[in-house]
Amino acid sequence: MSRPAVLFPLFAELETLEGVGAKTAKHFAQMGVEKPRDLLFTLPHSGVDRRLLPTIRAAQLPAVVTVEVEVGAHVPARRKGAPARVFVRDAETEFQLVFFHARGDFLQKQLPTGQRRIVSGKAEIFDGIAQIVHPDHILRPEEAGELPAFEPVYPLTAGVTQRLIQRAVAAALARLPELADWIDPALKAREGWPGWAAAVRAAHAPSHLADLIPEAPARQRLGYDELFAHQLTLALARASLRRGKGRASHATGRYQRKVLAALPYQPTGAQERAIREIAEDMGSDKRMSRLLQGDVGSGKTLVAFMALLVAVEAGGQGVMMAPTEILARQHLEGLRPLAEDAGVVLEILTGRDKGAERAAKLTALAEGRIQILVGTHAVFQKDVVFHDLRLAIVDEQHRFGVAQRMELGAKGLTADVLVMTATPIPRSLSLAQYGDMDVSVLDEKPPGRKPVKTALVSAGRYDEVVGHLRQAVAEGRQAYWVCPLVEESEVVDLTAAEERFKVLRAALGEGVVGLVHGQMAAADKDAEMADFVAGRTKVLVATTVIEVGVNVPNASIMVIERAEIFGLAQLHQLRGRVGRGSAESTCLLMYQPPLGEGAERRLSILRETEDGFRIAEEDLAMRGAGDLIGTAQSGLPKFRIADLERQAALMAVAQSDARKLLHGDPGLTSSRGQAARVLLWLMEQDRAIRLITVG
Q1: How far apart, in whole angstroms, are the C-alpha atoms of residue 4 and residue 37?
Q2: Signal peptide location in the record (predicted)?
């Protein structure tokens, strides 16, 4: 399959556009603009009102004004570096045009004395006189029609001016093909959206500010197109994964019943629902591709383990992968008691396993004597062979994008895939990142989890906080003290943590305070954690390495130093380390006054709510999608037009439309399907095109 001929003009070299040479093309490339198509998807971000005014007298200066003037006297520059001035008069008042470094007779040619001209530019008052420095436009009255009443303003880069990009865009628009519509006609009519080519033209020719907002019909339509192409790609990936022959793993309940009987509590409704959804998926002969999304403390571990038991009950094996060794070991700690209740064999495999020990584990795995394996992504190295792998659980932490999920499928593993994330993700982002998957959400807290009291404390009250800790330690309670990420350098963070450790040890006594940070040897880190878990140390000073997965029910105090420099989601994750036992828990957010507006809002939201999904939505509103999860490593696509914060609802519509279209037309052979293929080529979703079923 190759790109349709109708799109060739949009995918030609940029130099084929009138007025764009090789040098200009290089400048454009810095903006990610390499072909006419990229220009069409580079929309203006603001605009300038250039409507003709009779006079500047009534204008609220400084402001951009456009007026017809009669040109008066020229006053040349008095010395090098000083400006040349031209006096002009509109219908009611006189003002000056100011030019620096004007060469030769340039001004006389542009502005001949006694003639009329239209000038447009930013007027301001200087020394009591109105002036325009370097007008943006100088036109003869008969050329007035060339100036748009509302001029679009584009993003720029070095070597690209507004005039240059406007000319290039006009040349690209001249090549705009009329394409058959891929949008469901009912949706298009309901939303009142224009056709594709009309939407592109309208987006580049705004007539007022309202045309520039994401909610404007043309922008909504083009944003939807981008999201629809993305969701089609994900839906095709999902269809290809599910076509990959899955194996039905039927749960017998043999092991699950033992675990449920040993639990000291009843699972929540959300846990039961997720366990049921996963078991149903695994019982079908289609491959499962599901996301398990849960807030801090919502009980993901139990759900994941029950899924692993379905694999074991069906006579197979399960694997749980974590992004780091410390997390893999924490999963092992969490799962071990459950494995003992069930009576199944659980083992860990990481880079630490060497020689005979590793060889023994690999043999046991290949022979099926290890039923559940926990490890890092190293479990997919060539020499790791499973006897009968039925389920792969990936503990996400945002390091495992769509591409890696597709690779997992390409390995020929017929295993079902369950991806877990502990970070609540706003719905629009979750669809952008995991739209190829079915989703189970844990939105209830297990019984017995008490709310955590959150308080803001100024750094000036440090002694008071240490006094509070001393009292808590005397009562047998435990606490975390998280040191700030001073900068993206673990060495500096380490110094801060070590200093705090020394000061607290002096205040609370020898042997009471432990320390963990990212630079420690793994064995030392494990030993420090083990001391804290066993209650031998009472206060654990840490950098953010403890953000995820640590479970110490007796720890009931969390102190976060310089809380104002942490992100919302990170603070929420850290707070989730306490409130796991029966004691009342407290999270103290220590900040350095004065607080900036953003920091104050973040800390206030945290104090008001423990609902991770609400916190995630607020975080998205404050920081934007890219920042929220670090676009580079997130698997989150970069959209040129679609705005994930402001057009969130469109993502859900795009997903259901894409799935519906593919359900009725898996090969995209209908007339609308053919139009959707053109859209995929237009949006450079080449990988998706390779996934379209033939026939």
Answers
A1: 14
A2: none
